[in-house]
Structure formats: C-alpha cells, structure tokens
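lol ok so funny story. i was supposed to be doing the assay writeup but got distracted and ended up predicting the structure for this chain instead. priorities right. anyway since i did it might as well share w the group, maybe its usefull for someone
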Amino acid sequence: MHLAPEAPPATVVATVSVSDMRERIRRKSRLKGRQPEDAAMAEVAQLLGPRPATGFRRDLLIEYLHRLNDHFGVLHDRHLVALAKQMNLPMAEVYEVASFYHHFEIVRGEEAQAPRLVLRVCDSLSCSMAGAHELLAALPDRLRAAGQGDVQVLAVPCVGRCEQAPVAVVHQCPVPHATINTVLQVVESKPERALARHPQALSAINFDVAALAEKSIPLPPGEVSPAHTDLATYRVHGGYQVAAALVNGEMDAEAVLSAMEDSGLRGLGGAGFPAGRKWRIVRDQPAPRLMAVNIDEGEPGTFKDRTYLERDPHRFLEGVLIAAQVVGTEAIYIYLRDEYHGCRALLQRALDDLRAEPPCPLPHIELRRGAGAYICGEESAMIESIEGKRGEPRMRPPYIAQVGLFGRPTLEHNFETLYWVRDIVERGPQWFASFGRHGRKGLRSFSVSGRVKFPGVKLAPAGITVQELIDEYCGGLLDGHQLYAYLPGGASGGILPASLNSIPLDFDTLQPYGCFIGSAAVIVLSQHDRARDAALNVMRFFEHESCGQCTPCRVGTAKAAALMEAPQWDADLLDDLAQVMGDASICGLGQAAPNPIRCIHKYFPHEVGEGPWPGDLPKPRNSPLTEQLPKGAQP
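and the output, tada:
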C-alpha cells in the first residue's frame, strides 16, 4: 500500500495587534536613556522654530545651543535631551559638543537657575599687567555690599580688547579700562541680560584703511562702538565695484590672482602662507569648493581684526566676494568668535543690507558663532566647529585645501587677509609691496598693548623693530618705565629681552631667536614686570584652552604650569617636557606652548635661579604679575 508523504507541521505565526506594532515602533523611536519631557520639548521647539522638511541640520547644533543658552542663560540638561530628540541625535553627541565650549554652562535639576548677570574679567597678560587680579579679588565683596551679590564673577581668557586693559564684560557689554566703580555703574544701569547688550554705533563714516598706512588706527577714548562704514557710504566711495566687475565678467580672474601673488600678501592670521598661492591651490581642486573665514581672534594680545571689522565690515565682505569668485567657491562660512557681540550684530546687519541691495549675484553666505574656544582659531578645529562638532584639530594630511569643510576643498582665510584684497586690486600689487623696512615688504597691523602710552592697532611697515614701533607709533613707554622684554607674537610667539629690540618684526625674521610674529600681537613689558610671570600667565592660558585631544598638550601644559610656579625652575624636567609637547602635539597650540619656557631659559635665566642678573637689564619691581613666593624666597 502506497502512503502519501507526511505533511510538514504548520508554521505557527504569532498574532500581533495594531496597538502592539505601534508600541514597538514607539519604543524603537525613543532615545536610549533619559526621555525628553513634554514641557522641555515645547520650549525647545519654540526656540528652534518650524521643523524643516529635511529635519534640523546637524551642522547647526552649536547655533541651536546658542539659542537655548541666550534665552535661559544656561543649558538645562532637560533641554539638551529635548534638543537631541528634535535633531534625532544621540544625547551623548549633543552633550559632548555642549560641554566642550567655555560659553555653555550645563546645569542639572529642576531647581537650577542661571545667574542674573555674569561679570567676566579678563585675566590674560595685558589685563593682568593693568590690574585685573585686583579687580577679581575686590569685585565679589563690593558687589555684595552694593546689593548685587547675585552677580556671578568669572575670570576669563583674552576677550580681544587688550588696548583697553583691564577689561570687564557685563553679560555682553564691555567695560574698557575697568575699575571697581565703572563696573558697579554698568551693573546697576544694566541689571539684567536683556539690557546688558553691546551698544551699537549709529553714525556712518568712510573708513579708508589705505589712507592710514604707516599710522595708528584712531582709537576713540572710552568708546566700544566706533562709527563705521555702512553700505550706502561704502558704495558712494567705490565699494563693491571690483567685486561686481569680476562677477559680471568685466574683469579677468587670472589678473586678480596674479595681483595677489605679486603683492606678496601672506596669511595674516599667524601662519603667513602666501595668499595668492593658496587661491591657486584651491582653485585647482575639483568642484564643489567652499570657503571658510576665520575671525576667531583668540590669541592673547590680538585685536586687529575686531578693530577693522567694527569700523568697516563691507571692505572685508568685498574681499570675501572677490576671493570666492576667483577661486570658484559655492558657499562661504564666516566663523566669528563669540566674545565679539558688537561685531556679530554689525556684520549680520551688513550682510542683510548687502542681500537687500546686492551689487552682483551673491554666493551663499552663513555667519557662524563661536562659543569660547581658543583652539578654534586653528583652521581644522574651526572647520570641525562649523560642522557642529567639538573644535578638535584634524590630523593632516589631507589638508583642508583638499578635504576641508563637509569633505570638500576649502579656501580658509583670516579676516585681515581678505580685508586688503580690494585695495591691492584697485591700487595695484606694488602699492602694498612698496611699504616695508629693513629689507621686508608690505604692511602689518600690529596689536600693541602693555606698558606703552598709546596702545592700539598700528598699521606699520613690515620689518619695523619693536623699538621703532614704540617710539614712532606708541608715544614711548609709560612714564617711569623702561623696556625690559616683549612678546612679538602674542602668547604663542615667545618672549624676547630689551637687548633684542632691533630685530625686524615680520614673518621668518624671529625664528632664529626662538620666536615668531604670528598675528603680530606685541605686548610690551617694563622693569615693573617679570618675564617668568608672563610665561606662567600664558602657560596657564594654554592649559585652560587645550582641547584635550593630545595627551602631550593636555597633560604637558598643566604640568608645565605647575613646575613654572617654583622659585627655581627644574630646567632639565621643563626642557624634556617642552620637547615632548613640541614633537608629539598635532596642532600649533601644543607645538607653540613650550616657546615661553625656552625663551626664559635662553634670555631670562636669572629670573628662575639659573644665573646672575645681567647688567644690561633693569631689575623688575612692584609687578602686579608677581606670584606669591614661599616665605623667604627671592625673585
């Protein structure tokens, strides 16, 4: 008898209801960990505005964090959870970005509240020399006595107003040449964040920077918002004619590029790479190409970009348009340091005016806001920040000219480099190259601060010496002061003694002495200061501003600062530490941080117990920078 094969057992299928499926989808769509609160979601949604069809852009994370921080005064953890949900990002990613930047304070718990006002006092070198430590010590008690004890007082790194030292900032309102009384007056007159804004200038002027060649940039006393050039005034005086002619095909891009090369203009943010050569390199890369402009002017002692921007934003914007057209970039991202609140409002208004009355078709331009991180002055760290990430430098190669912003070839420039483009094209490359001293060519914008009578931005010939700069542009040293030492390139550029006051200040001239010009921030010290105290001040700055990515930089700056506090330095240990930091750090911060150590060993060994006091240097006295030494120790 033939039997049919046994049928396979029937497959059992679990029955899932519609409600079960909805619950499963809901669980998968939820963020892991803490879930957003409905109230926090509503508050974040209101500040972010309508959700775009493609969702909120990942690269705008820092901009969204600023909206929350501006509105609430701090970043509440509940809002970070809601923001992560709105942007469909892991909470850890939002938190790691928010916690990286100094201007974001994360608070936890329902009861946490923002301070009514935050009073920031700069304690970088120029302000410390002018009495910032005394301000910081006295202000908390004086505020409490005045019934303002709920104002939070913070010591902060350089705010870019070194010519007005010491500087305090009440929320966003700068207080130049700050005293206890002037600070208290501003706090009383601007008792809340909504009132403590950077004042805006209303008057318009024609600011012709070329007419100020080999002169000091005028510094209105007591003003934080000088008169500036508006669009109408700029156009009346020939503004945007070069950019329009280039975009409209009436001017040859190759001729403009040749003029840039012939002028000898170099990158004025610190690196000094020839601008014309950079344009040609990026132009030869495959499209689409992008452009990133660095106005994260955080080097202590530097304020030239702010000085020019707050007087004439349109000359800068025309330089941006010319560069973008010659190189062929499709979009422009301008990165401005967060401390420059007045400049941000001014530049945003200039962009709005330009878009309302464009002199020619405009590329896509975005103004991005930093959040308090010196490391973002490094070009690749700035690009990471523009992309909405932690501002950590990238390994190179590849260089950003090849793989930069959003993975595209990117033209990166400092503000001042672009500021000169219009004048070089209009006046010819030889005009710019005709300036110079001691065999150097071009103009340099020196930010001068410290023990001089008239600090400020000095538009001087390249190659000028520090003694010539002090005598001809700064009215000499303050009464009762003698030149003792100077920093030729801000915190990173090293420290030189008065005996080397005749070195031409320019790119490539200071390296044989263990220094560099960088952003041309010259800080002048007198016999009332000690070079070792200046070195310790800048090392503490580097410790504070290290991004932490490199162990040699993160640990080395902290260890160096601790060792530098000793009355007598451990020379061998500090030299070994300097060698490791310089060799193993991936960016300029860690590589340049050892410069002050090496300069003290080389030029000021008498200050750290390594030799007798030289006869050609006056002994310092009464220095407000002098550290508290152990009892009985001698400086």
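The CA atoms of residues 179 and 185 lie 10 Å apart. The longest helix spans residues 341-356.
back to the writeup now i swear
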